[in-house]
Amino acid sequence: MDLVNHLEGRLLFAVPKKGRLLQACLNLLEGADIQFRRENRLDIALVKNLPIALVFLPAADIPTFVGEGRVDLGITGYDQVQEHDAGVRTVARARRQSGEWSAQDGEKAKPQGCDTVMELGFGACKLQVQVPVKGEYATGKDLIGKNIGTSFVHLAQEYFARLELEQEGLVDADASQLAGRKLKTQIIELSGSVEAACALGVADGIVDLVESGETMKAAGLMAIDTVVESSAILIKSKAPSNPEMVDLIAARIGGVITAQKYVLCQYNVERTRLADATKITPGKRAPTITSLETEGWVAVSAMVEKKRIATVMDDLTTVGATDIIVLDIHNTRGSRA
């Protein structure tokens, strides 16, 4: 099959091709009824029931493809978007300093960058400054002028640029001033096994992602500061090829996420106790209340956060609710803001 020809007219949706976000992304797509088959591990898969093509890319590359308008939608980590944006600021600063960029260039250019559509609620981690547990460093400032290993080069540069400016008494620098600044600190780009850099004598400290912290501890490291807190996000191009389809996919994914967080709680209660009951189950917007054939009684239906449901059921029982039922929600759709 000639995939290139089949891509015409399809919205391009980038998802991580491997790593910690992949399985959660696939589950999300399934919940949103985005049906596809990835043939022989190809990096492009045509969606069967919608005019969409999924493009499997490294998570670190997705903000670039979305930001340049090569694809319309993408799922990646907030940390990767921040790293991409920091890189863009560095390039822009270099062009301005060399005289290669003017305001007119910006006016003529296609909109660059990506917009965050929503947080997806998985893939939580932190980009942290880490040092040997038995070392001499206790704060980020202790690493000024030292060697830092990282795959997040641009964020690390901005982090240490800010520390160096603070050391010089300049505390109000904005992101554009930090980008591309000549540093005393040496940032060493590493593509993998960053946690081994200190033990191997390559770096005095590192800037790397931490999920559970087990890898960091096993490498004899401890975190002394956090650069960025991250989780998976849905991003879109500033100039998508099909804005209506982008909105449709965003609504479907939003419905799946809501369904994952909530259950539907239904119960009967005397009308005289309704006010107390609905304080316990106010719902996302408001509970649904229906009169029963039995005089003075009503049926109530409300969405409740899964993590609260046991306590909610206890409290409902206390105020006299009966016949309490909890139902799973497989998908939902709310009104657009």
TrEMBL record:
SUPFAM superfamilies linked: GlnB-like, Periplasmic binding protein-like II
Gene Ontology MF, one: ATP binding
Catalytic activity: 1-(5-phospho-beta-D-ribosyl)-ATP + diphosphate = 5-phospho-alpha-D-ribose 1-diphosphate + ATP
Signal peptide: none
Keywords: Amino-acid biosynthesis, ATP-binding, Cytoplasm, Glycosyltransferase, Histidine biosynthesis, Nucleotide-binding, Transferase
UniProt key word Ribosomal protein: no
Metabolic or biological pathway, per its Swiss-Prot or TrEMBL entry: Amino-acid biosynthesis; L-histidine biosynthesis; L-histidine from 5-phospho-alpha-D-ribose 1-diphosphate: step 1/9
Domain Histidine biosynthesis HisG C-terminal: 259-331
First-tier enzyme category under EC: transferase
Keyword field contains Transcription: no
One Gene Ontology term from the biological process aspect of the record: L-histidine biosynthetic process
Compartment list: Cytoplasm
Domain named ATP phosphoribosyltransferase catalytic: residues: 59-253
NCBIfam families named among the record's database cross-references: hisG, HisG_C-term
Protein's name in the database: ATP phosphoribosyltransferase
